[in-house]
Amino acid sequence: MSRREVVTSPPLPKTDDIEREGSMKTEPQTLRDAHTDAASRRPRPEADMSEWLTFHRANARMYREVSEVDRWHHHELKYWVGFEERKAEELAARIATARTSS
Fold first, then answer.
1. Is residue 85 part of a domain?
2. Where is the composition biased (Basic and acidic residues) (predicted)?
3. Tens digit of pLDDT for each residue in 51-85?
């Protein structure tokens, strides 16, 4: 009888273990990291619409980039890209309407 040899790659380090301050800050690599990053940058509820627009556009870019790295969550990340893009489009339309009505 022959034994089947299974070769596995070493586990990747968890990004939660990486210090995220100063020059040690890394880009999000997983869906969880992306959600944590978005939550840490979230504007105050009373912030200007332009600040929220910038936030949603940045989130869409971030989720798109992470979707290329975290292949296990690729489709869920694509959902979040669409969600953030829709939010950004809605805010851009509201900002344009507010400018034309004033």
1. yes
2. 14-47
3. 999 999 999 999 999 999 999 999 999 999 999 99
